[in-house]
Fold each of these.
Amino acid sequence: MEQFYQVLTWVGVFLYWLMIAAVTMRVVFKRRVVGVSLAWLMIIYIIPIGGVFAYLLFGELNLGKKRAERAKDMFQPYEDWFQRLTDCPGHQPHLMTEHARPINDLCENRLGIPALSGNTLSLQDSPQTILRSLIDDIHDAQHAIQMEFYIWHPGGLADEVATALIMAAKRGVNVRILLDAAGSMRFFRSHWPKLMRHAGIQIVEAWR
């Protein structure tokens, strides 16, 4: 009987190290960042059995791949639109100056978006100038406003932006805002989301 338990023990040890070796190979061939791979290997070897289960539960989550696939699906309508831009009246590459042509080439090569005529650009070098210009554009909007921010902290000119958006929504403008949940945490804890949604503004809280 004692010999049976001894054999069972050796079989258990063999299966354990076989499992460790298999998971180790899995970690190595995943080709993650070196620091991440080393951290998982330390957990697997230092914490018996528990480290393996922890990796199987959390280490195999491939959110990056899922996000890439989702972004690819979302980009398809825009890609079709970009391809049609070359046929619109605003696409007049023969009228570009020698300074504008390299910028157009850069945009087309990197983004696939050609430069279009009929636009004006202004350099804004301070937050106050940027927000004041943004508020003016909101007041001038007639049909739709779509905005995206990583960080929105309530207070100062940001409150004036929120007020301008509420006024725009009340006069019939379709207002939609996308905010990062972590970067705009203080905003979501303030009274502004409730006021803005009550005015008809669609606010989406994006999670990572």
Note: The beta strands are 144-149, 174-180, 202-206.
Amino acid sequence: MDVILLERIPKLGQMGQTVSVRNGYARNFLLPQGKALRANEANKTRFESERATLEARNLERRTEAEAVAEKLNGKSFVVVRAAGETGQLYGSVANRDVVAVLAEEGFTVGRNQVELNNPIKEIGLHSIPLLLHPEVEVSVEFNVARSADEAERQARGEDLSSADAIYGSDEEEEEEELDADELFDDGVSPDTLSEEETAEGEDDTQTTSSDV
């Protein structure tokens, strides 16, 4: 179907252009959303008569989108989700979740403005593009974590997608044991000290008894 675009559509064309699209795309999206008109002589005349109004409206929307983009730029949003030790989510974070999180922070964004090709299925820092206007795009960071504490650790650059990263590895435990051993003299362990202290205590008791 040939349609006249009433606004710029990414990868399709500019306002006023006549382009050919699939019938379903035109009927289900472009026409009902007011983004295009069927390409015929009557609508061409209508477009030209309304062009100035459409351009003014487009400029207003772009200005509003730029203001929102400026507020969103560089922002990070924390999303807490249940996940396994490998970081795999038990569910996912989809477009609707992005919209809901942004709404909680006071930003109104439509699902079709979230450029998330596939749902997020693992913890970590994820950059999500938002198409606020055909000419205005901004990316926000979603910090998906198992808890607020882990979100802070991820924000500092830690990778928590393994059990070792979360709880510490066996090597780290061995290093801690070695550090503890270094506090004692060679050949003397905490257990040895405990035995010696017990023996000394018994000697003192025996000495006291003898004195009495």
Note: The chain has a mean pLDDT of 85.
